[in-house]
Amino acid sequence: MAGQQSMYQFLFEGPQIPIVSYRFASSISLVLKAEGIPCLLWGDLAMRAMGFHSIAQNLDLILEDEHLTRAAALFRNYEYAHEFPYFLRCASATATTPESGRPEPTHRFHVYSHPEITMMPSQAPQEPGAQGPSAVHGEIPHIDICLYSKRWYFPGNPPIPTGIPRPTNLSYMLSNDGRLPLTGYQHGQPNFGRFPQDISPVIMAKPARYIETLLVLRINFGTWSQQTRWWRLTLARMTTTGFGNGPDDDPQPVMFGPLYDPECFREEFQRWWNLMRARDIEAVLAEEENMGVLLRSPGTPVGGPWVPL
Q1: What residues contact 95, with CB distance under 8 A and at least 6 apart?
Q2: Fewer CB atoms inside 10 Å of the end CB: C or N, the chain?
């Protein structure tokens, strides 16, 4: 491997498995921005930027629906693989099934090479005559870029900004905003909290808007759908992180920071959020029942791309 450029600038080993780096997210965001396509950081990497621990194996981006096809064509021009070209296994795609409850992207690209890096193939042995590692032995390490529909997965929110959102913007912020948690490093790479100043920031939703949207999605995807379970678990993670089980545990979780004040939430969500912060679960459930009629509006997508409507 001597002389090859390390893959760890964009994809690096965490405690157990590779984690997508902030530098890769920034790089891809700039590619889209150069083509006039605004994007919103979403999913596990956005959660890490907000201060919630998660394993970010994909780069999840939300795009306006009218930009999805153009963005897909752009990535095809970069020769990112839209289908499996010769490695037959993708752990990320395998995990994204209707049964798993994970949201299904409109487009998924398997990035195993990048202009600025060399993705090193796995050391798994190859079958005679095979073009790459066999499905039995493993896969080429790669990053998945997953593009999601804003209409489905960030409904009811303003258009994604084409420029830099002002600090007073009620819905969007930059990933290097000083109100986000301090940057955390692992193996010399920033991978937690706000983006450092030497990495071009990406646009992300403010935490309050993110939480509101999770609640809307949970209610609108139907009581028994698998995705309802997924949104419920994600919402629980964002509203319980930092709570301990004993009297000596830290009583100030992430949800009590300045970006989580009730005034940051839209009026129809403020009572629910106050009850959530008070940990009055019975009252929270009752309030959610009352809010269900309001949030299940005809203009809100119900079901999702692969959940029957």
Answers
A1: 102
A2: C
Distance CA 103, CA 254 (A): 25
DSSP secondary structure letter of residue 273 = H
**Whose structure tokens read 């379970």?**
229
CA angle 269, 263, 241 (to 5 degrees): 70
All structural domains of the chain with their residue ranges: 7-205, 208-295
Describe the chain by its helix, strand, coil percentages, rounded to 5.
Answer: 35, 15, 50
Q: How confident is the model at residue 122 (pLDDT cuts 50, 70, 90)?
A: very low
pLDDT tens track for 61-103: 999 999 999 999 998 887 666 655 444 456 565 555 655 667 8
- Between 55 and 107, residue with greater pLDDT: 107
Report which DSSP code applies to 136.
T
CA 242/CA 33 separation, integer angstroms: 35
- Asked if 190 and 184 count as a contact pair (C-beta separation under 8 A), the reply is yes
pLDDT tens digits for range 181-191: 888 887 777 88
Q: Please give the torsion angle defined by the CA atoms of residues 11, 73, 33 and 304, in that order, rounded to the nearest 10 degrees.
A: -80
Q: pTM of this prediction?
A: 0.79
Please state, in angstroms and rounded to a whole number, the distance separating the CA atoms of residues 107 and 237. 26
Beta-sheet strands, E only, within 45-177: 58-63, 107-111, 113-114, 117-118, 143-149, 172-174
